[in-house]
User: Which sequence fits this backbone?
């Protein structure tokens, strides 16, 4: 889909991950998750809003009877303080919970979420992320399923935004350095 609108956007430097490459990652991770959780009650939890697009593709690559749920959190800036602005709809006690993220950056978001979920008596809590930007990590979060490690560049598309824009790009693109200052 090379004629998509952002290809000629002056803010976008290059495509980092194509649709095909993302599809391959979803297929590989989905197969691993299907094997690992076979016979277990599984709930996929996506973090709004960015995790939504990856969840939609990943869940269709998991050949298991599972449920979906959503959380949204708000951060108070660069510190560790975050709060839940939308909680899960269902009880996860006794279920295996897999948190699905588009990107792990500082790790502060997941550190918080994993601790919150672990306090609700699940059978297990694990993390699946499409992208891992380790250069910015502050909190150490175990990542059970990692799509790709990316360099320290600002990326948009496939759920990831810049001021709310670009989430609907079917690929992941790098934003020009000049834009980010
Ligand atoms: C992004 C991303 C992760 C989080 C990772 O979400 O989707 O949830 O940042 O960052 P961290 O590892 O430094 O905590 P964002 O806060 O931009 O919200 P969004 O999902 O609504 O885009």
Assistant:
């Amino acid at each position: 889909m090379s004629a998509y609108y952002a290809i000629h956007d002056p803010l976008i430097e290059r495509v980092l991950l194509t649709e095909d490459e993302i599809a391959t990652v979803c297929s590989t991770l989905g197969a691993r998750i299907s094997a690992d959780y076979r016979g277990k009650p599984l709930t996929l939890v996506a973090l709004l809003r960015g995790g939504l697009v990856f969840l939609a593709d990943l869940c269709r690559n998991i050949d298991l009877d599972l449920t979906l749920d959503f959380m949204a959190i708000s951060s108070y800036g660069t510190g560790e303080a975050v709060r839940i602005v939308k909680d899960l709809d269902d009880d996860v006690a006794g279920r295996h919970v897999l948190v699905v993220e588009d990107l792990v950056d500082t790790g502060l978001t997941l550190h918080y979420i994993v601790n919150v979920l672990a306090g609700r008596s699940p059978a297990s809590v694990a993390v699946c992320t499409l992208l891992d930007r380790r250069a910015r990590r502050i909190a150490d979060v175990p990542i059970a399923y990692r799509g790709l490690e990316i360099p320290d560049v600002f990326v948009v598309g496939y759920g990831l935004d810049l001021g709310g824009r670009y989430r609907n790009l079917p690929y992941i693109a790098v934003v020009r350095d000049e834009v980010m200052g």
